Amino acid sequence: MIIIMVGLLCMSLSSLAQTLRIRDVTQVQGVRENALIGYGLVVGLDGTGDQTTQTPFTTQSMSNMLSQLGITLPAGTNIQLKNVAAVMVTAKLPAFARQGQTVDVVVSSMGNAKSLRGGTLLLTPLKGVDNQVYALAQGNVLIGGAGAQAGGSSVQVNQLNGGRITGGATVERELTNNFGDKNQLILQLSRNDFSLAQRVADVINKQSGYSAAVPLDAGSVAVKVSPSQASQVQLLAKLMDLPITLPTARAKIVINARTGSVIMNQQVSIERCAVAQGNLSVTVDNQTKVNQPDTPLAGGETVVTPQTNISLREQGGALQKVNTSASLNDVVAALNTLGATPTELMSILQAMESAGCLNAELEIL
Predict the structure, then answer these.
(1) Does one domain contain both 221 and 323?
(2) Which residues span the domain enclosing 234?
(3) Exposure string (b/e) for 8-34, b if CB count within 10 Å is 16 or more?
(4) CA distance 160 to 145
(5) Measured between alpha carbons, how far is 350 from 347 in angstroms, rounded to an integer?
(6) Beta strand 361-364 with 252-256: parallel, antiparallel or unpaired?
(7) Axis crossing angle, helix 229-239 with helix 194-208, rounded to the nearest 10
(8) 295 in a domain, yes or no?
(9) Is residue 111 located within the same domain as residue 217?
(10) What are the distances in angstroms from CA 5 to CA 16, 294, 326, 330?
(11) Does residue 319 sit in helix, strand or coil?
(12) Which of 27, 51, 201, 359 holds its CA 20 to 30 A away from the CA of 34?
């Protein structure tokens, strides 16, 4: 029996102390993706393109493209296109991307096209925030949705006005970076936590054998390295796989008022308290009564009389005792005894926090 109890205790402690790698909780400062955006045309649609009378920019873009290809349209020509759609193209330029490397692009309709299925994106330059072209996108758009319509009825599954091109953009300009130019690297933590920053520094110092890492604040750790870029890559390859035990998170409850979701972590606990909750409903019944004259020739008039009945009903309201709960299972069991809906549970948790019997931080999204 003692051996079994010790084993269960060890299992509970191991579950509380979660072990991850440093790469799971940090990222190197300056090593990040960059957003690219471009405007282009998708052609080859089966009559599901933009209605050019309502989207004049599609016609203008088509005329400009044809003029660049040496085709001049007569003045006053009104182009009626059904197989062309104006789209916005977005992509993520990864860190250390080299010329010739391909990246995925997302194509989204910006007009009134019904579907982009079967379309081909024409050559589209993708620019960064500095208005410089970093990639060129082109290819067949893959749509994940489907739809059909006939006889005034239609059915649609998923989205038809947005798609993706795998490897649809080719990198033409490389980003300048200062990786390896300094004698230190900054590791940014995934969450601001002084305990986590200190633990990351301790693990790195234990591996290196000297004080190579110093926590700068709750969100970053500085690591001293040699100025050689190759040695920094080797060092990061070793450090990122070092195991680290996460500190215990603070008790927190997150409430999404729009969806009615209530999420709490395992550190949440409550003190003994009494809760009374009930539903108050007010019903207003408005009916119209028509009064006719007794005899047709009496000279009376038809009178319409409104009758309004108001009733008030209150359900529930019994005082429920909630015992002290030291674990998440006890908290869930205690709250379930109240029989409250998610919407009512939000109000109860707010009131419990105000009363000082909720040992957790309450965040409302």
Answers:
(1) no
(2) 178-245
(3) eeeeeeeeeeeeeebbebbebeeeeee
(4) 5
(5) 5
(6) parallel
(7) 110
(8) no
(9) no
(10) 17, 90, 19, 21
(11) strand
(12) 201
> CATH number for the domain including 237?
3.30.1360
Residue 145 tokens read as 């949705």
- From first to last of its 365 residues, the chain has per-residue pLDDT tens of 333 333 433 444 444 456 889 999 999 988 889 999 999 999 999 888 888 888 888 888 888 888 888 888 887 777 778 899 999 999 999 988 999 999 999 999 998 898 899 999 999 999 999 999 999 999 999 988 666 666 566 666 667 889 999 999 999 999 887 776 778 889 999 888 899 999 999 999 998 888 889 999 999 999 988 776 677 888 888 889 999 988 888 888 898 888 888 888 888 888 888 877 665 555 556 666 767 776 666 666 777 676 666 554 555 556 666 777 767 777 777 777 777 777 778 888 888 888 888 888 888 88
Same domain, 195 and 221: yes
The answer to whether 304 touches 290, Cβ cutoff 8 Å, is yes
**Identity of residue 361:** E
Q: Could you tell me if 223 and 190 lie in one domain?
A: yes
Sequence-separated (6 or more) residues with CB below 8 Å from residue 278:
314, 315, 316, 317, 318
Number of domains forming the structure of the chain: 3
Residue 21 forms part of a structural domain = no
Asked whether residue 8 is assigned to any structural domain, the reply reads no
User: Quick one: tokens of 50?
Assistant: 């933009």
DSSP letter string, 262-274 = EEE-TT-EE--EE
Structure tokens at 137: 């996108």
Sequence letter at residue 109: S
Does residue 162 lie within any of the structural domains? yes
Name, in order, each residue with C-beta under 8 angstroms of 271's C-beta and a sequence gap of 6 or more.
324, 356, 357, 358, 359
Beta bridge partners of 195: none
Q: Which residue has the tokens 């059909």?
A: 148
